[in-house]
Amino acid sequence: MAEPAHPAVPGGVGGRPPTRNRSGGRAYVTLQDVAREAGVSLATASRVLNGTSQVRADLRERVHAAAAHLSYTPNAHAQALASSSSTSVGVVCHDVSDPYFAAIARGVMRTAAEHGVLVMLASTFHDPSREVEYVAMLRAQRARAILLIGSGFEDRGWERSMSAELDPYQRTGGRVAVLSRHRGLRVDAVLPRNREGAAALARALVDLGHRDFGVLVGPRALTTVSDRLGGFTEALAETGVRIPPRHIVEAPFTRDGGYAAATELLRRDRRPTCVFAVTDMMAIGALAAFRDHAVSVPGDISIAGFDDVPVVRDLTPSLTTVALPLDAMGERLMGLALREPSTRRSRVERISGEVVMRASTAPPSA
Amino acid sequence: MAEPAHPAVPGGVGGRPPTRNRSGGRAYVTLQDVAREAGVSLATASRVLNGTSQVRADLRERVHAAAAHLSYTPNAHAQALASSSSTSVGVVCHDVSDPYFAAIARGVMRTAAEHGVLVMLASTFHDPSREVEYVAMLRAQRARAILLIGSGFEDRGWERSMSAELDPYQRTGGRVAVLSRHRGLRVDAVLPRNREGAAALARALVDLGHRDFGVLVGPRALTTVSDRLGGFTEALAETGVRIPPRHIVEAPFTRDGGYAAATELLRRDRRPTCVFAVTDMMAIGALAAFRDHAVSVPGDISIAGFDDVPVVRDLTPSLTTVALPLDAMGERLMGLALREPSTRRSRVERISGEVVMRASTAPPSA
DNA sequence: AAACAGCTGGAAAGCGCTTTCCGTAGTAGT
DNA sequence: ACTACTACGGAAAGCGCTTTCCAGCTGTTT
């Protein structure tokens, strides 16, 4: 009873205005307004609109009519707060405009749509710290799940700060799913068989007659890079072929990176007969570089990529690559995140790539 | 650190549990928890974390320490609800995996990041009704702004239902910005000069010597299609050239649509010497179709597109097109949406395209 | 020394909705 | 007709945070 009666209650205690109207012309229609218009209680209106429980038909009608008439839209924030649930998931990628991501995102978006889920998308532009920052934002948004798309980093500091965000998130019921290997994160994952795919490609290329290889790689700290490069060189080693270090060129993980790396490779000693770019985007850049330097593909040099992003089949020459079902991977990733956490253990779905020989590779010229 | 056992729980309603803990293991750390740990009031904790007003240094320290220690993350929903503001914007596009959109999205995402804004992305997969549905969801999320990317429809019904969502949204302070012409919507817009661009392209092609044209178009109800086709045919008409109706082929607005349209065109009477695909994606499909039918480009037939999506410069032959600064358009679109509504009138920013002649066009063979 | 700003920090009123807890009515059972 | 249920509908308690409104201090001012 120690409640001190405040004399000056904002808004006035006496009569609550029937219509709420903030300044600035803003005036959201609230469920309260709908209930009043329909002549029912707040609770009933809520029940009708959510179909939570049975409500007599005539009341139901009235509520719906009122809602439509007032053009009512529930406040998702209020809903989320009250029900402590959310219908949005967060997706973090490196770059929306990268066809690799775009293709995966397609599957993600479709699956999200099927489940009535809204996707919050963040682009890190290859900045690891921004990635962590975004996860924090998504956590604040109480996203139902967080999807990390794109290679993880082999970096202790990154692992630690990422875990610092992800662990509390998962502890409070958040679901996390990642594409590609992310060391140190105990989360569900969709994992392309990068090593195996690269190995299969290597064997196919050797079968074609090549013995002299070059590889265009992205930053070594990316798990995708080390896995693909590792699988490729290992399979080669098994057939007795070694790649000289000067034929492994590192550059950014992009089309322009591929262009630069290929140009650099041409400058170096003893040109290889076949080049493996660890991603299609780099291969596209390499193709352009070869064209600009009047090196014919596959006449003078063969080139192969990895991923099979949609556009590579339309290049001339069309690109030999390891095809990954990108769209389906996005689907499964979202599926993983949406599925009930059946077990405590993190689930892993492995995706096989398939070598697709196209016009960019041919036997080496004698 | 000697704080009183119980900081005098307000209201003295029985006993409020010191720690909130829902079942299911979920237990979000709340600002209340932080305040308790720091031995300050809820208000003070809030003030510290938001920098809203001055707080004594030692208290500030304690709050920050407590927040870090508990790994506290504010509940964005609660913040949004209490402050009736939101830091996310909604973006609706047709298809994330379309390079045209992807390029624009890049600019959008970058600008969003600069403003600390989270982007909620929705893909309609070319379904107009889904578009309206998403706008409703975004409205419910109280997105600060809604961006509509992609051509509008010339359709009364669509206009009406879209307006039914957008009008109340704008009335309550929501900002809307669209890319491309959207009839019937009174909103800010970034408008590519489609007519002018297509006209300039037409003239360039005529200058090359072409008189016999074919056009590959998307659904006529799309404003982008009608504008580009209109500009193209008009400019042609001015030079006395007419396109026979059988040389205008309609197909879906995609790579495969372009392939189908080109194939169909080849089947029809009297093949034109030059083909204009109203988007680059359709042109890419057409290029593939010509290749598959052994029609050499530009030897047998010339082809030009529109948009200049990043990949077309890497095709062989590289594609002649009307270049739009897609990334910058995305930037400006987001800029428009974030800028304070200075005037009541809707703002329009027009973007000029530039004809880029590349290898896919050449004078007609004699 | 009295009086007055100027700062700080706490209490509490919402933000709009969900959901539990009850009371009331309607229906059925005997 | 009377009790025992069941189905509905309303009141109200939060969900976690922001933001007024005040009270308590300290440092000035005259």
Automatic annotation (TrEMBL), chains A, B:
GO terms for molecular function: DNA binding. Residues 29-83 form the HTH lacI-type domain. Keywords: DNA-binding, Transcription, Transcription regulation. Residues 1-24 are annotated as: Disordered. Residues 1-10 have a biased composition (Low complexity). PANTHER family: LACI-RELATED TRANSCRIPTIONAL REPRESSOR, LACTOSE OPERON REPRESSOR. This is LacI family DNA-binding transcriptional regulator. It comes from Actinomadura meridiana.
